Amino acid sequence: MSTRRSVLVATLAALSAFALSPAQAQTKTDFKVAWSIYVGWMPWGYAADHGIVQKWADKYGITIEVTQFNDYVESINQYTVGAYDAVTLTNMDGLSIPAEGGVDTTAVIVGDFSAGNDAVILKDSDNLADIAGRNVNLVEFSVSHYLLARALESVGLSERDLKVVNTADPDMVGAFQTPDVTAMVTWNPMVSEILALPGANNVFDSSDIPGEIIDLMVANTAVLADNPDFGKALAGIWYETAALLTADTAEGAAARAAMGAASGTDQAGYEAQLTATRLFDQPADAVAFVTSPALETTMDHVRTFLFEKGLLGAGGSSPDAVGIEFPGGTVMGDAGNVAFRFTDTYMKLAADGAL
Amino acid sequence: MRLVNVRPDRTVRLMLGLLPFVLLVMAYVIGSAARLAENPNDKLLPALSTLAQTINTLAFVPDARTGNYILWTDTLASLTRLAWGLGISTASALVIGLVTGILPVARAALAPVVTFVSMVPPLALLPILFIVLGLGEVSKIALIVIGVTPIMARDLALAAAALPREQIVKAETLSASSWLIACRVVLPQILPRLIDSLRLQLGPAFLFLIAAEAISADAGLGYRIFLVRRYLAMDVIFPYVAWITLLSVLIDIGLSTLRRRLFPWSEMAR
Predict the structure, then answer these.
(1) Under 8 Å CB-to-CB from A307, ≥6 apart: which residues?
(2) Considering its fold, how many domains does chain A have in total?
(3) What is the annotated signal peptide range for this record (chain A) (predicted)?
């Protein structure tokens, strides 16, 4: 009888095999990193293709498999269910997807912040206030949505004054050319293409809220705690590649051309996007950024936005449900449920040349 | 007794039919419990109680921002698009199918183009539709029409052509005109096939609808799934998938009943 029951249990266990097990915290040597195409994340792909990842992984005696995702959201979802140890994402998506989903996540590297890569674009008007009453096409709940909320705040409007229409990002450029689309919020490379069209006006962009849309490389906190070498290797890869990327040499130009080609543009197009990006190629700058009090203000804006949209602390009555830890140990929100952490540990090691 | 001769009675049949569903639910519950034990905030396989709570919020609690009941607003938006798309498809397929089925001249003119169009993968046309027709309702309905009409039209033309030639000759000896033959001999006999054809196209029609809603919309079943996918909100996605499946099954049963009521004689042909 008991045998039969155990057969049944085994069958059910097999059936439930689709329940992937979350990333297990233990010492290990094989790591998986996911990234997707964006100006500030192209260095990861370049580093993987040009042996920089291999070099740093070998130095710490580990292997790092770097996978490019064509779909940004899918890469975050795969990280959240535990299929990857680290992923590239923005501060807002890191808080609302893995952290809200109970996956304790640490920002290993602050790679850059958007300083113009995200923009609110109006047709036939250069006054942001004219957005009132229009249909606004954007990817709902993305950083575009956040940028719109911040833009509306700046002119005393709210989302009630307009109508948001969810539109997929690959279709933005085409959509802007149809007559019924008159307002749009999107990011580069679409922004530069759309602004080149007649009648398109940039009325608000991320350089108006500097340092609020931050692009990170995050890793599972438990994996990182058990394997600090993984974090060190990531920092080593990033700063070596970033130095190459910003170098005013033939090698630097070749790297920018390669990253431009990989993101569907060319060297000039990629360099134009870089000017709208505050890239942290010096670890000391990133350490200063992540330890400044401004980051706490930013995260408070972000979590309030997410809470108002029902994306954070679901069912709770305040955005405090998910705790956010800053370097030095300050916690914003529930200290018993810290799931999103900023740290300067690895960037500091890079700044001190201790990698 | 040989296995091929074992016939389960009604009760056993019912139980055997339910077994796969029960196993699926049990596998889900076990998987969900295992994941939640490890991480209480896990979103991939929410507990049944979470699912029930979310369904309640979606269906019976007005949305704080808009005051709408999300599930019903989405369902209404999607079913309206589906009804327009399938309505236009059915009407045009009937006309094209009838004409090409009985008039050799029309067949010569239309059959190649209908065959050609039916081979165009509709989803590949989506970017073009959005540019030409805008992001509004028209492009979504057009996608359904383009995807479904040619196949239904070809199906009906085949059904019309398969009618015994003797029937047409007989009607002619009774001095019926082409118009009368079309209306009184062919049309009644292909109408049951039209309904069956529509039933078979329900699946593809939903596929096109969801694909179009995923790209640009402010309400709809496909819109919601692709919106909350961003937040791995499986507690919304699972009920929506089940709801879409249930809607399809209900529409299918409804159409099947309609055919039996309207054309009871067509049952004998099977």
Answers:
(1) A313, A318, A319
(2) 2
(3) 1-25
